[in-house]
Fold this sequence. Notes:
The protein has helices at about 15-80, 85-105, 110-125, 125-130, 140-220, 235-280, 290-320, 335-350, 370-385, 420-425, 435-440, 445-455, and strands spanning about 330, 355-360, 365-370, 395-400, 405-410, 460-465, 470-480. By secondary structure, it is α+β, with helices and mostly antiparallel strands. It folds into 3 domains: about 15-195; about 250-320, Helix Hairpins (Orthogonal Bundle); about 330-480, Histidine kinase-like ATPase, C-terminal domain (Heat Shock Protein 90), CATH 3.30.565. A 5-stranded mixed sheet has the order 2-4-5-7-6. It has a two-stranded antiparallel sheet with strand order 1-3. A hairpin with a 4-residue loop joins β4 (about 395-400) and β5 (about 405-410). α1 (about 15-80) packs antiparallel against α2, α3 (about 110-125) packs antiparallel against α5 (about 140-220) and α8 runs parallel beside α9. The longest helix is centred in the middle third of the chain and has 79 residues, at about 140-220. The structure holds adenosine-5'-diphosphate.
Amino acid sequence: MYLSRKPIKHYGILFKLLVVFIGIMVVAYFTISTLLIYIKDSVNISRDIVKVRIEVLTISQRLVDSLLVMEENQKKYEIIHSEEYKKNFMAALSEYKNAIWSILWFRYEGFSAWEELHAEFRKAFPDLAQGRELTKEPWIDQDTLNQWMRIVVSARQDNERVLESGMRELFRISEAAVSRGLSGLTISIGVGLLGVLYLTYSLSRPLRELRRGIRAYTRDGRLEPIRVLSKDELGELGAAFNDMTVRLKEEERMRADFIDMVSHEIRTPLTSIRESVNLMRERVLGDVNERQKRFLDIASDELQRISAMLTSLLKVSSMASQIVDLAPVTFNPEELLRETLEKAGPGAEAKDIALTPRVAKDIVSVVGDRELLGQALYNLVGNAVKFSPAGRTVRVGLELADGGQKVLASISDEGPGIPEEEQAYVFNKYYRGARTKRSTDGIGLGLSIAKTIVEAHGGNIWLSSLPGKGCTFYFTIPVDGARA
Length: 484
Ligand code: ADP
C-alpha cells in the first residue's frame, strides 16, 4: 500500500544539503591544511637558503679571492721587495679577517670548518685578531696558506651541497604541493558533483512522481496514488497527495452515489409525467385545443431533454468504476453510422445542417458493444450539430487504420472549434467549455462517456481543432476490440 498517513521524516532536504556541503568542506579543509604544511616547510628551507647558504657562499668567495691575492703578492714580494706588494698583501689579509668575522654570524649545524679557520687565524695573527697593530712581518708560509685554502674550499663545497639539496627539497615540496592541491581540487569537484547529482536525483524523482499523479488527474481525470520515494519533505508531500486522492475518491464516490440516487428518484415520476403528457398530447384523455397542444409539445420536448440528461448521468455513474461491461457482437460499422445519423437527423434538420457520411470501401466488420459504440458516435455527432452554426456541414468518416487492425471514425464540424487551453480537459467528467457554458445547454458528460466507451474497447480518442475553423474528433476501435 502506498499510503502512509504520518511518514517518518529521516533525512530532510536541508540535512542532505548540509551533508553535501560538509563533504566538500572536509575535502577542501584537508587540502588546504596539507598545502599550508608544504608552504611552511618550503618557507623554512628558502629562509635557510637565502639568509644563510647564499650569504656564506658569497663570503667564502671573498675568502678564496683574498687568499689568492695574499699568495700572489707574497710571491711577488719575495722576488721584488716592493712595498706596493706588501700593502696589497695587508689589504687582502684584512679583507680575509673581515670575511672570517662576518661568517661567524652564521652559526649552523656543521659550522666547525669555519671555526677552525677562525682559530687558525687567531693563532697566526693574535694581534690582528684582538684588533691591535701587527708587530711582526705579515707573511704566512705557503703550507699554512694552502691549508687555509683547503679548509675554505671544503667548507664552501659543504655549503654548496647543502644549498643544492635544499633546492632539490624545495622542488620536491613544490611538486608534491601542486599534485596534492590538484588531487584535493579534483576530489572536491568530484564530491561536489556527486553531491549535486545525488541531490538532483533524490529531489527530482519524487517531484516527477508527483507531477505524474497530478497530470493523470488534470489530463485524464484519473485519481491514482503515487509512490512515496523519499523520506524527506517531498516524501511528506507525496503522502499528503495520496491522502488527498483518497479523500477526493471518497467524495467522487459519494457524489456518484448521490447523483445515482437522485436520478433514479426523479426518473420514475418523470416517466409517469412524460406518459401523462404524451397521452394528453395524443388526445387519448380527451380533446385538447391547438394552444394546449402547443404547450404540451413544449412540455414533452423539455421532458425528453431532462430524461436524456438523466440517462447520461446514470450512464456515467455506472461507468464510474472505469470498468464497463461490454456485450460484444460482430457488426457492420457502416450500418451503425447510418443509424446514428438518422437519429441525429431531426436535430440537424432543425438547424439546416447537412450530415455527410464518407465510408471507405474496404471497411470491415467490428467486434464490440454495438449499443455503447453507437452511443459514443451519437455523442460526438450530437456535439458537432449542437456547436455548429446553422447552415453548415458535419462530415462523418469511417476508414481502416493501422494496416487494417483498427477502424478510424472522424467527425468534423465547421463550428467555433475548441481553444487550445481547453483541449486537454474536454474529455473530463462534467467539464464544459467557458464559452459553451453560457450559450448551449449540456452537463459536460458526452465526451467523457464517449472516451470511457472507446477506451473500454482498447481504442483511443482525440481531437484536433483550429479555433474559429471547427474541430474534428477521432476515435479508433480495434477490429476485434471487445475480444482484446
Ligand atoms: P456538453 O456538450 O454537455 O457541454 P461534452 O462532454 O459533450 O459536454 O463536451 C464538453 C465540452 O467540450 C463542451 O462544453 C464544449 O465546450 C466542448 N466541445 C465538445 N464538442 C465540441 C464541438 N464539436 N465544437 C466545439 N466545442 C465542443
